[in-house]
Design goal:
single chain; alpha/beta; Rossmann fold; 2 domains; 6-stranded parallel β-sheet; two-stranded antiparallel ribbon; 13 helices; about 55% helix; elongated; AAA+_ATPase; ATP binding; P-loop_NTPase
């Protein structure tokens, strides 16, 4: 500062305004501090780190405390990190704000993970919502099937490396066979067990349509079913049967699963005897009871036959 600067007249008004502004800012800062320090989460943080914190650290890192306080107040849409919530931590002598997935985000991630474990091919959307709770009030016509499914889930989770036979659920249209399979799949997904469900008639049409176009794609589709951890073949017997579909598709899938002892479930409107005599034995190639018997041998090895009857829930 030069001598001429000392000779300049003092602007008292400006000095007063500056002082008032500083006092106003200090008052606002003190008010902000009061709100931040009164926050219950910040109070809990101070208590948890009482042996490490002091006044200098708190004031030095107040900006981080303020960030935590303001971000916590904001809705998910307004937050800097959507789907995440702030948490305080004390790292290397510094108060730090970290962001972790919110409860809603964790729940959504878990739900997505469960859905990814349930691989549904040409299946009705209802199976994504099916739960075992849907079968809490069941009729006597359904009790055996539900009890068997509960037993399978329990036993599989206890010893997943051992072989567990599936079920062959048969009964009238609309009694809940597919719904029960979806509930089983979603329950197993809660324990990170993947399940593949396929509407077999629709799958058969898809294979036929791609028969002359891309054999590699069809092979991958077959392998998906062959190697599925747990497989549900839904509505078997409703497909338009050909010798190729029976022997080179269904037979190949079942043979692989039988040899590797992989849990396999079926739903059908046919009993096992009906499926063999009224469906599998007859194609355009003629009556072939031996080939039908060969398929049924695999189905019987893989599954236990259980009747599921009752009212048609789809017309209610």
């Amino acid at each position: 500062m030069t001598e001429s600067d000392f000779n300049q007249p003092l602007d008292v008004g400006q000095a007063m305004r500056k002082s008032m502004q500083e006092n106003h800012l200090n008052a606002r800062y003190a008010e902000v501090q009061k709100k931040v320090f009164a926050d219950s989460d910040i109070q809990a943080f101070f208590t948890a780190h009482a042996d490490e914190l002091n006044r200098d650290i708190v004031h030095r890192d107040f900006a981080n405390l303020y960030e935590f306080y303001t971000q916590k107040q904001k809705s998910d849409d307004e937050s800097v990190h959507r789907g995440y919530e702030p948490v305080l931590d004390f790292i290397d002598g510094q108060i730090t704000v970290l962001y972790q997935p919110s409860r809603a985000t964790v729940q959504a991630q878990k739900q997505q993970a469960r859905e990814n474990l349930v691989h549904a091919i040409q299946m009705p959307k209802l199976i994504t919502r099916a739960t075992m709770d849907d079968f809490s009030n069941i009729s006597a016509d359904q009790s055996k099937a539900v009890t068997k499914i509960i037993s399978f889930i329990t036993e599989y989770l206890e010893s997943p490396t051992e072989y567990h036979r599936g079920l062959y659920l048969h009964g009238p249209y609309g009694v809940g066979k597919t719904h029960l399979m979806g509930a089983m799949a979603n329950e197993l997904a809660e324990y990170d067990v993947p399940v593949t469900l396929v509407h077999f008639p629709s799958f058969a049409v898809e294979l036929r349509n791609g028969f002359n176009s891309d054999n590699e794609v069809n092979q991958k589709r077959l392998e998906t079913l062959q190697k599925a951890t747990i497989l549900v073949l839904d509505d078997i017997g409703a497909e338009s049967l050909t010798a190729w579909l029976r022997d080179d598709v269904l037979g190949v899938i079942l043979e692989y699963r039988m040899q590797n002892e992989l849990p396999t479930f079926f739903t059908s409107n046919f009993s096992m005897d009906q499926l063999e005599k009224e469906h599998l034995g007859t194609t355009k190639a003629g009556n072939e009871p031996m080939k039908a018997a060969r398929i049924m041998q695999r189905i019987r090895f893989l599954s236990e036959e259980v009747l599921m009857s009752g009212e048609n829930k789809r017309v209610q």
